[in-house]
């Protein structure tokens, strides 16, 4: 292998180690999901317990171990240990911050606390009592590069504590120190991985339950649609049959009335066919029907049928190319607008404009004041349904009376995919 390649691999390894260190020492971006977070008042009680534990260790260490070492007074030694106690209290809420504070301060204590007259382990017992809890929590909370950074910095701190005064360190204690260092890191990382796996499993189960609930709702809607079809189809068929047979059952029916009966029968048959097509959409397993649905190209036929039924209707169509779903929504909005005009203002002239420019399909249905009595009671679902259809495409529907007593319905639908 060429020297340049070796230098490149070395630089890459050093860069990865440095990135891991930075991931461990930078402020935490994600909230620490503590295992006790669901317990009542645990966010206050657990840090207090960790802080109390640190105080007990600090008092015992200052009075029984460090008091008198190299002339150091127990009260001063206790003050030296307080930053580590603070790190322990912080660790349950912010494990990486607490671990970093305790780790750095243990190195500083090597400089502040006088060496013992005899050789001691790399880390004394009181060191481990302060360090092990934060090591465990840090390995539990960290993942990926941050976990590698925790291991590297902890190992560097262990080496730093040894080289501050190498003659005072028992060389035979290194193997024990490495075991004590590795055990909480391995255990903490295993517990963290297990907790994250359980959380992911719970999230997946919740998503599966939501999907099942949606599937159940769709099945219920399909069942209701089938029942509605059975009820409405019967009556629509009866209307069509009676309208078709009326000229033969009733004597002396004038030709205009025969024509009216024929148009009523045709409208009933068309409505029945559209309802059967909608039912096919609900019944299909993949949620889509292969049968063609009405679109922008069918608007003129709709308007001609409405005019033939007696509505004084004028229209202006300038239709752009649009997706089938948008065309279906536009068709239904115009259809509902004509139905509202016939219901609330029977006999009033109606003007329909459907134009497309600047990537927006604009629909306008304006009817004048009614000239015949209205049987409408109001409070229907026409306008909410139109707004829902428009919202599916990011559009809007505006409807309201005009000063002269007429009524205006305006919809704007963005034409996607142009």
TrEMBL record:
CDD domains assigned: HATPase_UhpB-NarQ-NarX-like
Which residue ranges does the record assign to the Histidine kinase/HSP90-like ATPase domain?
330-415
Q: Which GO terms describe its molecular function?
A: ATP binding; phosphorelay sensor kinase activity; protein dimerization activity
**One GO CC term, this protein:** membrane
Region spans: Disordered: 367-388
- Asked if the record carries the keyword DNA damage, the reply is no
Q: What highest taxon heads this organism's lineage?
A: Bacteria
What protein does this entry describe?
histidine kinase
Native species of this protein? Blastococcus xanthinilyticus
């Amino acid at each position: 292998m060429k020297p340049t390649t070796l230098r490149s691999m070395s630089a890459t390894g050093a860069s990865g180690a440095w990135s891991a260190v930075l991931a461990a020492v930078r402020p935490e971006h994600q909230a620490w999901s503590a295992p006790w977070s669901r317990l009542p008042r645990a966010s206050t009680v657990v840090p207090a317990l960790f802080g109390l534990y640190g105080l007990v260790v600090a008092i015992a260490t200052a009075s029984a171990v460090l008091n008198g070492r190299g002339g150091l007074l127990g009260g001063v030694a206790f003050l030296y240990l307080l930053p580590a106690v603070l790190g322990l209290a912080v660790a349950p809420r912010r494990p990486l911050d607490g671990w970093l504070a305790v780790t750095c301060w243990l190195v500083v204590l090597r400089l502040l606390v006088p060496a013992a007259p005899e050789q001691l382990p790399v880390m004394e017992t009181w060191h481990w009592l302060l360090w092990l809890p934060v090591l465990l929590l840090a390995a539990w909370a960290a993942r990926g590069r941050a976990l590698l950074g925790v291991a590297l910095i902890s190992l560097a701190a262990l080496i730093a504590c040894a080289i501050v005064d190498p003659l005072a360190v028992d060389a035979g204690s290194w193997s024990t120190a490495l075991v004590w260092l590795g055990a909480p890191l391995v255990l903490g990382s295993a517990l963290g991985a297990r907790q994250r796996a359980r959380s992911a499993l719970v999230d997946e189960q919740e998503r599966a339950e939501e999907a099942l609930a949606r599937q159940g709702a769709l099945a219920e809607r399909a069942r209701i649609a089938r029942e509605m079809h059975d009820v409405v189809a019967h009556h629509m068929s009866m209307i069509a049959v009676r309208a078709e047979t009326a000229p033969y059952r009733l004597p002396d029916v004038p030709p205009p009335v025969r024509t009216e009966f024929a148009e009523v029968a045709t409208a009933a048959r068309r409505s029945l066919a559209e309802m059967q097509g909608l039912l096919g959409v609900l019944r299909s397993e993949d949620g889509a029907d292969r049968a063609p649905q009405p679109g922008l190209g069918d608007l003129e036929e709709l308007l001609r049928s409405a005019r033939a039924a007696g509505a004084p209707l004028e229209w202006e169509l300038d239709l752009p190319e649009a997706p089938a779903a948008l065309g279906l929504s536009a068709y239904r909005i115009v259809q509902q607008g004509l139905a509202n005009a016939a219901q609330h203002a029977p006999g009033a002239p109606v003007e329909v404009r459907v134009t497309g420019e600047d990537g927006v399909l604009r629909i306008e249905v304006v009817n004048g004041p009614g000239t015949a009595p209205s049987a409408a009671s109001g409070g229907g679902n026409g306008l909410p349904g139109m707004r829902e259809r428009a919202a599916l495409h990011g559009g809007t529907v505006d409807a309201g009376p005009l000063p002269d007593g007429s009524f205006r319905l305006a919809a704007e639908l963005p034409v996607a995919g142009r």
